[in-house]
Amino acid sequence: MTNPTPYPTAPIILPLPLERAPAPVEGCAGCTELASVRDRARAVGDLTTVTDCNVYLRRHPVGHQ
């Protein structure tokens, strides 16, 4: 008797866009600060803060970008 296959297809592997960090808007002090915090967090391995900063940069006021 054969073992049943637990899943009918192979799992889907989704890419993590870690290399595509959002760029700060030039001349914006808020963006510059977020980018600075992100760089310091990355330097110490705090990927949670890196991700948070990326989210805040992407959610920056719509009219600003």
UniProtKB/TrEMBL annotation:
It comes from the Bacteria. This is Uncharacterized protein. It comes from Streptomyces paromomycinus (Streptomyces rimosus subsp. paromomycinus). The lineage of its organism: Bacteria, Bacillati, Actinomycetota, Actinomycetes, Kitasatosporales.
